[in-house]
Amino acid sequence: MRILITGHKGFIGQNLFKYLVHKGHTVEGYDYIPNVFPDPAKYDQVIHLGAISSTTETDVEKIMIQNFEFSYRLFQLCDMSGVNFQYASSASVYGQTKNFKESAAMSPQSAYAWSKFLFDRMIKSVPYNEYNILIQGFRYFNVYGAYEDHKGNQASPVSKFIQQAQQTGVIKIFEKSENYQRDFVCVDDVCDVHEQMLNKDVSGIFNVGTGIPVSFAAVAEMIAKKYNARIELIPMPDQLKAQYQSYTCADIDLLESHVNIKFKTIKEYLDLND
Length: 274
Hints:
The chain is of the alpha/beta class. The protein has two domains: about 1-140 and about 185-210 and about 250-255, 3-Layer(aba) Sandwich (Rossmann fold), CATH 3.40.50.720; about 150-180 and about 215-245 and about 265-270, UDP-galactose 4-epimerase, domain 1 (Alpha-Beta Complex). It is built from nine helices and twelve strands. The chain has helices at about 10-20, 60-80, 110-125, 155-165, 185-195, 215-225, 240, 255, 265-270; strands at about 1-5, 25-30, 45-50, 85-90, 135-140, 140-145, 170-175, 180, 185, 205-210, 215, 230-235. Helix 1 (about 10-20) packs across helix 5.
């Protein structure tokens, strides 16, 4: 299959590019240029991952141009060309809730989350059978794994804690981190989801997580044990308090009705890196 990946130099994009090549697909990447769009007609599938992914970005205009307007135009080009379209959404659209079913009420808390919510909403505003193509949106939960180095403070806690443990011997976590639970999903499994869904005759928006939340404190403890590091508690920055999700847990019933994946646990991931 000939596949175009936007955002191929990003964290998930780098992993997915290599994964799909390994699976025998012909893969090309696209770098964002304002008002310059790739030609979907050259491909069998477009996977749109490119976006401003920082949840703390405050330039709303910039986010809307790249995350919503560009995405919408690229989607239109795919629909006109008859090229199936996968795209990255985010669990951040759910906000502070305990209901993470795809049909649940949304409550985005940041400009980034709003951009993802609005694109999902636009896609769902028309019945899927009225489009010319298959459309698959993936609401990623907390993805971690290789190629996160460039993300800095936006890296997953798993990768951030590993780096801290290796470099300083001290893992810094927010106070009361035992109360913050997230659904951490390995990027290898995210790639597997994308590849399996390429062959599914279905449109929709799907949660991509493990369905099992783990506290930040538990993650830190596992990594501290592995690397013989100590844990230091720090206060949460004021700019994060209002939008910080205290709990995420993907409802993956819909996803599991289409794919067959045994999701990797953080413990298994750490063992693989022994």
